[in-house]
Design brief:
By secondary structure, this protein is an alpha/beta fold. It has helices spanning about 10-20, 40-45, 60-65, 75-80, 90-100, 115, 140-155, 195-200, 235-240, 260-270, 305-315, 325-335; strands at about 5-10, 25-35, 50-55, 70, 80-85, 105-110, 120, 135-140, 160-170, 185, 205-215, 220-230, 245-250, 280, 285-290, 290-300. It has an eight-stranded parallel beta sheet with strand order 4-3-2-1-5-6-8-7, sandwiched between helices. Strands 9, 10, 11, 12, 13, 14, 15 and 16 form an eight-stranded mixed beta sheet that branches. Strand 3 (about 50-55), helix 3 (about 60-65) and strand 4 (about 70) form a beta-alpha-beta unit. It is globular, with a radius of gyration of 20 Å. The structure holds nicotinamide-adenine-dinucleotide.
Length: about 350
């Protein structure tokens, strides 16, 4: 029998998660929630997804717009084995009591505190920590990006210290708020929360981060310096990453010099929505001096966490014990297998 998944919050992450689940053979969607009768609500219905509303009183506006509503979040939680909470940062916490009461499992996103679930998730680094868990939290897009490239480096070379500067997209392409229009805005609370967030999964990692928000919507760019425990070469570092799923190389020599061209490549590859779920590393932007490694990576914030959410469902629902088997199954289903 397939695992029954409900999605609370059919927005940027929620609709991509729904698309990914529809491509799996061991899980299915039993419903998604929407608060307003937006075009996304109409699209969900058109795709055959049962539409739920957070609270009973939210149904009225949908009825006026003649959009069929199947029930409330409480009813969805009773039907589902697991809820993927994709509501805005901080809102997930307000629904925890309902999940507690209905007995359903739930996955929260990076906008919630680690303490809400008590365990945070990355497919490669700690798949087993969410095994059979009632709650887990898939870390943010930036944290996922940092762990994808740093964890294999730590395994192979050992890491003494990491310093990362995050050049963040101001807002998602569909957003109307939040972005500096003609400014670069430093995060003044230092070091930023990104390092401690990585440590919710790799507690031993000596990592320090700073961040600026920029007037772009496409991707985050990370500028990373790593002091390794032993000397290596650029070729050896690239070979480590080459053998890891969900890391993709691009090259300035081939004309990919910015986030804009990476997004163009995603569209040229016919990736759904023009998404790039892999972390993109510039192969000709990697430099090693003795034990110090410098590199740049790009993170497609709207989609990189989606394959991790699928693996997290498999771990929490005890569907696949071997993380690599889950990762490969997910990647094959999403067309991102290496
Ligand atoms: P979003 O604003 O695009 O979507 C949120 C959805 O939740 C919308 O459909 C909205 O209608 C719904 N919603 C709002 N208030 C609600 C409520 N009280 N109850 C139920 N539903 C409600 O948000 P998003 O960008 O998809 O972010 C969701 C989570 O994923 C956040 O924790 C965020 O930090 C995290 N995240 C976002 C990104 C990103 O770049 N967008 C990347 C990784 C993780």
């Amino acid at each position: 029998m397939k695992v029954r998944v409900g999605i609370n919050g059919y927005g940027t992450i929620g609709k991509r998660t729904a698309f990914a689940i529809m491509n799996q053979d061991d899980m299915e969607i039993v419903g998604v929630t929407k608060r307003r009768p937006s075009y996304e609500a109409r699209l969900a219905v058109k795709q055959g997804l049962p539409l739920y509303v957070p609270n009973a009183e939210d149904a009225e506006v949908f009825e006026k717009e003649e959009i069929p509503v199947t029930g409330t979040l409480k009813e969805l939680a009773e039907k589902a084995d697991i809820i993927v909470d994709c509501t805005p940062g901080g809102v997930g916490a307000t629904w925890k009591e309902l999940y507690d009461q209905s007995g359903v499992k739930a996955i929260f996103q990076g906008g919630e505190d680690h303490s809400l679930a008590g365990v945070s998730f990355n497919s490669f680094a700690n798949y087993h920590e969410s095994w059979g868990a009632r709650y887990s939290r898939v870390v943010s897009c930036n944290t996922t990006g940092l762990i994808r490239t740093l964890y294999p480096l730590d395994r192979v070379f050992g890491i003494e210290r990491v310093f990362a500067s995050l050049v963040r997209r101001g807002a998602d392409p569909g957003d109307r708020k939040g972005a500096p229009l003609n400014a670069v805005e430093p995060s003044l609370k230092l070091p930023t929360h990104h390092g401690p967030d990585v440590q919710t999964i790799l507690p031993w990692l000596n990592i320090h981060t700073m961040a600026v928000k920029t007037p772009t919507t496409m991707m985050h760019i990370h500028c990373i310096t790593v002091d390794l425990k032993r000397k290596t070469t650029e070729a050896d570092v690239l070979s480590v990453w080459d053998n890891v799923p969900r890391i993709k190389f691009v090259s300035g020599k081939h004309g990919i010099k910015s986030s804009a061209q990476i997004m163009e490549l995603a569209r040229d590859l016919n990736r759904p929505r023009g998404d790039f779920m892999e972390i993109i590393v510039w192969s000709d932007g990697v430099k090693v001096e003795e034990k110090t490694l410098y590199y740049y990576q790009a993170v497609h914030q709207e989609s990189d966490v989606v394959p991790e959410i699928i693996d997290c469902i498999r771990s929490m629902m005890k569907l696949e014990e071997d993380p690599i088997k889950s990762i490969r199954k997910t990647d094959r289903s999403l067309g991102i297998e290496k």
